[in-house]
Protein 1
Amino acid sequence: MKVLVAVKRVIDYNVKIRVKPDHSDVDLTNVKMAMNPFCEIAVEEAVRLKEKGVASEVVAVTIGPKAAQEQLRTALALGADRAIHIETDDKVESLTAAKLLKRVVDDEQPGLTILGKQSIDTDNNQTGQMLAALAGMGQGTFASEVQVEGDEVRVTREIDGGLQTVSLKLPAVITTDLRLNEPRYAKLPDIMKAKKKPIDVQTPDALGVAVTSSLNVLKVESPAERQGGTKVASVDELVDKLKNEAKVIA
Amino acid sequence: MSILVIAEHHNGQLAGSTAHVVAAAQAIGGDIDLLVAGEDVAGVAEAAAGLVGVSKVRVADAGVYAHQLAEPVSDLIAGLAGEYSHVLAAASTQGKNVMPRVAALKDVAAISEVLAVESPDTFLRPIYAGNAIATVQSSDALKVLTVRTTAFDAVEATGSATIEAVTAEVDNSLSRFIGEELASSDRPELGSARVVISGGRGMGNGDNFKLLEGIADKLGAAIGASRAAVDAGFVPNDMQVGQTGKIVAPELYIAVGISGAIQHLAGMKDAKVIVAINKDEEAPIFQVADYGLVGDLFEVLPELESKL
């Protein structure tokens, strides 16, 4: 079974973001970029499926500018066999991303497609579900455990208040949650080897998908600043303030 | 305009979140219908009919909707969506599972975690874990939204909508429900707890998280952790509060031994009141804390527990 894993290049999770002075967007000039953390978990899961002998091949795919190949190289260093880069400098909304990935799914026919549940830039949490809808597949979102059994995959999902287990007919789409696994770090020899693994570059045009959006971002603002900084001298004072000033405990 | 709100329910009970989503629908304005999809949900429909502002409750009661799996429920909603200008659900794990699938079936965008309604086609939503707020305008004829329920005050339950059955036929060959394991702990769930107490690297090790438990029991709090504590192996990843973990907005958030890295602040800065306990008085967490206590957590925590 082939496993397709989608990764996204996003701002590094440790970077403090700044809104542009003209409020058009967040300023990404000279900012450290990295693979989206939930995508790292997706790559790790795909690689583990291969190590267990469940997956025969792991293909990584990304959509984005030329620089996004860095994240594909990371995926290759972590154990993906080859990669597909859908190159575009345009902003790609979830629905368009799902349409592009659907085209890749049509070509590659993976048994499983694994994505992060959301990217930490747009925080949409949509692409996996949309891909599943377009491909007519079942979806195991927010997965914390994945087990392939015959022609089905059993997915334990993190839901509000606990866990839910569903069984999906293969092929299926899975999106990862935090508990699924702990991603490994790439070793230097693997990073060197990854440089020789193939990346197939495609374009949205060639795939027959128009990069359009029905969503127009009118402005981006910083949220209201918190006014903190008050100190209390003792536990007694803290308890008193919480009871009588903030009134958040009884 | 007419709006379809997807009711959320568990074990035959209407979830409180639905009343907040109806409030968001009222902010958009228009006729509001509510959809209850599930198996044996007559009681849920009756409760839903009481929500102020709802004119009609539509009930899809069938075995195929049991456990509200995404595949059949989104087929059902997509089938009804043509009658509406907006479809809304809570930005819960259920809403987030189903609504993007609905949007893709209808070939429209989905808008996640709506914080405010500026006009029927323009909405505010958080990006970068709430470190920026985007105002987005949709040109789709159908708007598919999930709503951050804490951003809208719940409507009252003094109404009396009509109830009508939906007889759409949907089948599901893609997914099967296997089981559910709901947290049986008396402690509330992190995402919806009124009080959250979190430990960071300053806790020293996993055993020391027990120091938080007594306080959590007294306050009815959920226990969280910073990414540093998770990366150090003290506690499992599902306890992580932050940009790469859970985003929480409780009434009271107590950060213990947490320095206040940006990625952690992103997950908790919408708490109403923040308390920080840290021995380093320069720790950035104090800049956002309403009440900061500089001290050794191993002395402060037992004292705090005894005085609550």
Protein 2
Amino acid sequence: MNFDLPEELKVIREATRKFAEKELIPISQHMEETKVMPAEIIAKLKELGYFGIVTPVEYGGMGLSNVGHCVIQEELARANLAFCLLISGNNGIGSMGILYFGNEAQKQKYLPRMATGELLSCFALTEPNAGSDAAAIQMKAEKKGDQYILNGMKHFITRADISDVFTVIAVTDKAKRQKGGFSAFIVEKDAPGFKIGKLQDSMGSDILHQCEMIFEDCEVPAENLLGQEGDGWKAAMRVLEEGRLGQGARSCGMARRLIDLCVDHANTRVQFGKPIAANQAIQWMLADMAVELYAMQCMTYDAAWRLDQGDRTQARASKVKLFCTEAIGRIADRAVQIFGGMGYMREAPIESIYREARALRIYEGTSEIQRLIISRDVLNK
Amino acid sequence: MKIVVCLKQTPDTEATIKLTADKQGIEEQNIKWVMNPYDEYAVEQALRLKEKHGGETVVVCMGPDRVTEAMRTALAMGMDKGVHLKDDAFAHSDATGTAKALAAAIKPLSPDLILCGRQAIDWDMAQVPAILAELLDMPQVTVVAKMEMGADGKSAVCNRRIEGGEEVVEVKFPAVLTCDKGLNEPRYASLPGIMKAKKKEIKPLGLAESGLSANDVGKASSKVQILEYLPLPERPPGKVFKEQETPDMVKQVVKLLREEAKII
């Protein structure tokens, strides 16, 4: 048994960590204050290849394994979750639909430009009445001649305002619903009848926006259908499943940052004549944080490695997503407590990580949905 | 032109250094190893020269298996290939032994230019490049902060930092230069660069292939004998002034800074 990373991934981890420490961490707090990610940093992330991590080599990407993708997400999330969210469309839910269900022409048209970051992408499934119950989507797509006409609305779509290409799930057969009645489409940002609605203010992760997407008789060329009519549900589920391990890796990165900050603070903050790290109350919180981080990393990388070996057990990814996103919530809560008043202030990075961590238990499948998937797996054995 | 960069893998500047129980070395487990930071300037300089003037860049490194990670980083930044001096016989070489091994690996390459970091941040001796230049009978310019290629492509004008100013030196190739901070801004290894580096050659070179004998390198040849390592002394606790009028406390602090710490 060997738990060591292969040399190539060690080099990638060091390169990403170094870039994050020199360029990303120093601007992270300023980004939280201004809610803007500097264009130069986005350009650098493109130049260094971070938009094409998992895109196969034949489409201009790096073709990295799930383990490799997790290594990178952990390092970037350690700097700021927003960097992960920025690249997550092109390395995941925005490109996977095209990769798994697209035809060769669609792949050639979009994937190479996504891998370089020239095109930004996202995935649009969620609607106001279809969250955890994603099969309740209403958005319609009707075929007229050589076009599909899309009508309806999506919301909570991360980065939609700055994206160029969307994978949109819509209803093509009302009677069949998710059993062959949903289809997936590639929609470009300048499609007639499409516009971005409200930018939805959120509690955390607000450097990149959650957006409403409005489709009013939106015209999409029929050639933009992904796979066959009726493949939409299958595509959506596959795309979402891929993302779950990433939530584990991101939680690990955020946890590492919080623990580093807390250790520094506990060693330097003096109360009652001694550093607070001398107090058992603080020591125990740090110990619990360290144990949870270790468990999170073991689970995440074990599951990523198994997925790379071809084991697609859905419940395993759900276990990782559930445990890691709940653990980061506990870790962030303790970090606020260790920092005391300063942990609650906007000027220290703790509170923004605390707010961001809260969202992880909700998106890409709530904790409750994960428990549902896991319990079905347990009961059926 | 052919450029060789000598590389060393060192503990990260932020690594916590702990001595082994016998005080004969440092605990290597849990240490994060990186490319010697000064060597990054050498790699960057080699890449810039190649981009402008063409040619080939080779990275040469001595050490155990783990050093290939630093070599891969250099290849990922854009170096063309590597030579890895790898043999148990090389272990515990002093600066002369190390320079002999590097010279043996470099000589057959017949480079126009050899670039090194100004020193490695672990031992801080800055001896290997100087000895290497002597062994190869090449001129050397150390602590280079600026470099301009000559119009003939066979020489360079280098500015080296000296106490209170800079010295400008013209040097003919082949030569050994040691690179200082400020010479350039090293690039990051990009993901495509790392993927390409996977396929680049790192040629292992053992004692037998190097043409050296066991007496030339390693502990046997070492003219330096390390008796023991000592940990850094604990820092004395800081002085705290409180419960006095601020102007009085400031006066006392300034006095101490001037007379005791002697920093102002």
